[in-house]
Amino acid sequence: MVHHQGCTMEEDARDKCPPKFWRKTLTAPAPFADETSCQCQAPHEKLTIAQARLGTPVDRPVRVYADGIFDLFHSGHARALMQAKTLFPNSYLLVGVCSDDLTHKFKGFTVMNEAERYEALRHCRYVDEVIRDAPWTLTPEFLEKHKIDFVAHDDIPYSSAGSDDVYKHIKEAGMFIPTQRTEGISTSDIITRIVRDYDVYARRNLQRGYTAKELNVSFINEKKYRFQNQVDKMKEKVKNVEERSKEFVNRVEEKSHDLIQKWEEKSREFIGNFLELFGPDGAWKQMFQERSSRMLQAFSPKQSPVSSPTRSRSPSRSPSPTFSWLPIKTSPPSSPKAASASISSMSEGDEDEK
């Protein structure tokens, strides 16, 4: 842990700076260089990169400087500062931030003003000290004033202010250490996204209560954006109704499936009971057969006993079958005389049989 201007928190260095200037990196913002009078009392000797990587000198941290615009502070900035902070076992990271005047002159307009950019850097965990209104090109006087050992920046030549590479003299002095850029993220990329989706952000901010004047939106565009917001609301409502309808249909399908499953179970149970009762080997057939056999027994004549006596018949005369049980059709007599004649003839026939 380090505190302002590079003094360590070891026992032999605590008496060189008052406790009010000690900085705890994770619990307090980094101080501004021009707001404190605490100066590093340790001797400042020129170091080589090899010495710094071995952890020497032991009485002070290696002072590393990184500068930039840091507009729309993002993860690419933070990763570059993390690399600068971890270059050596014991390092103190100073970050220089250029002012609005220098930035607008040499690079272009910024989204965040200089006060916002300064404050953003103070709350990065890797930063030990923030230098406001940093120079565009590093001079020997600036390096000596802040006792800078090394400068960390990406190795791409940075052409600006009439120079092909503003870090050329730093590289020739052996004080430059390159860092790696983070692919896929940059301030220009973020601004490009905003410009590309300008209509979306304008509509969003109008919906949140910003006025057309604040957004620099014309009267016609304001009406168009508000109409589009109303259309989006209607689409959202329709989408919600569709989702609810789908949920209702899904519930109905689940209920229908349950009902069909229960109906199939009841049908199988009914068919099983029906076959058990009326099938080929069912109880109804057995009961019908039993009743049929009983009825046949009831209607069939009983056989005469074997020991019953038989009537003797004369061998000369064959018995004539009697059909007493068959009905005899007789025509009614046409007159009383005919009736008496038929009666006398029947009596004569009986006498002959006798």
Automatic annotation (TrEMBL):
Entry-linked SUPFAM superfamilies: Nucleotidylyl transferase
Keywords noted in UniProt: Coiled coil, Lipid biosynthesis, Lipid metabolism, Nucleotidyltransferase, Phospholipid biosynthesis, Phospholipid metabolism, Transferase
Catalysed reactions listed for this entry: phosphocholine + CTP + H(+) = CDP-choline + diphosphate
Ranges of Low complexity composition bias in the record: 304-324, 336-347
Cytidyltransferase-like domain location: 65-193
Chain spans, region Disordered: 296-354
tRNA-binding found in the keyword field: no
Residues in coiled coil: 224-251
EC number: 2.7.7.15
Primary enzyme class: transferase
InterPro entries in the cross-refs: CCT, Cyt_trans-like, Pcy1-like, Rossmann-like_a/b/a_fold
Pathway assigned in UniProt: Phospholipid metabolism; phosphatidylcholine biosynthesis; phosphatidylcholine from phosphocholine: step 1/2; Lipid metabolism
Pfam families the UniProt entry points to: CTP_transf_like
Entry's Gene Ontology molecular function annotations: choline-phosphate cytidylyltransferase activity; phosphatidylcholine binding
Known role: Catalyzes the key rate-limiting step in the CDP-choline pathway for phosphatidylcholine biosynthesis.
Family assignment from sequence similarity: Belongs to the cytidylyltransferase family.
Family annotation (PANTHER family): CHOLINE-PHOSPHATE CYTIDYLYLTRANSFERASE B, CYTIDYLYLTRANSFERASE
Protein name per UniProt: choline-phosphate cytidylyltransferase
Organism (species): Propithecus coquereli (Coquerel's sifaka)
Name of encoding gene: PCYT1B
